[in-house]
Amino acid sequence: MLKFVETSNYTNINASKMNFISFTGQYSKLTFIKRAIILLITISLVQACKKSDENNNPVDCGSATKSFVANIKPIMQTSCAFDSDCHGSGSTSGPGSLLTYTEIFNARSVIRSAVVSGEMPKGATLTSAEKNAIACWIDNGAPNN
Question: Which residues contact 64 (CB under 8 A, 6 or more apart)?
Fold first, then answer.
């Protein structure tokens, strides 16, 4: 035996299904938009907080090789390592004491970033030539020469 569905009930069922489908579609679009916004914010924050690369501050080193003893140590002694408030003996500022080649070598990436950006030295100013000397010496492997 066949049963016939009334047209009005069938229309109501289809209308209910259509509303559900329509609601689901809107929900998906809203979810997609929220996720896209969260993704964009996350990417922006990651880029903003990304550790600066040493090569983001290019320096023209030319062909002159910088010497630790002749070029870098005198700059460090007069501008950075003159007392314990800066990077002298007993210092706890930043990377600590910067008196020996080993201490300076171990802190080279921090030193380069701070010097090239102009953050350091505090209370003193390095010339462009001094900044370039330090950056070039570090960029060339910070040799003990």
Answer: 136
φ, ψ at 32 (rounded to 5°): -60, -45
Say yes or no to pLDDT of 22 above 60. Answer: no
Residue 96 structure tokens? 């600590």
**What whole-number distance in Å separates Cα of residue 42 and Cα of residue 80?**
38
∠ CA 104-109-114, nearest 5°, is 90
Q: 43 pLDDT band (50/70/90 cuts)?
A: confident
Question: Scanning the structure block, which residue is given the tokens 């080193």?
Answer: 61
- Report whether 108 contacts 138 (CB < 8 A): yes
Taking residues 9-22, report their average pLDDT.
Answer: 51
Provide the 10 A C-beta neighbour count for residue 22: 10
Q: Which two tokens stand for residue 100?
A: 């020996």
Say which amino acid occupies 108: R
Give the end-to-end CA distance of the chain in Å, rounded to a whole number. 103
Residue 24 scores a pLDDT above 80: no
Phi, psi of 41 (to 5 degrees): -65, -45
Ramachandran assignment for 35, one of left (phi > 0), alpha (psi -120 to 50 degrees), beta (any other) = alpha
